[in-house]
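pasting for ref
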Amino acid sequence: MKVSVEADKCVAAGQCVLLAPDTFDQREDDGVVVLLDETPAPEQHDAVRESALVCPAAAIHVHEE
């Protein structure tokens, strides 16, 4: 799995951070998503997929390899 984000689309809802805190964080100044790990460990895959599904801006992209 490889993950990418479109920070310019992010609306700072924070659901990704709540679901997958090892993969996503938010900038302190505006809450925009920060990708911490573009190749998360297998045990994080379900949470990362769910993060992409619930992202209100569709700013998270999961690429299955």
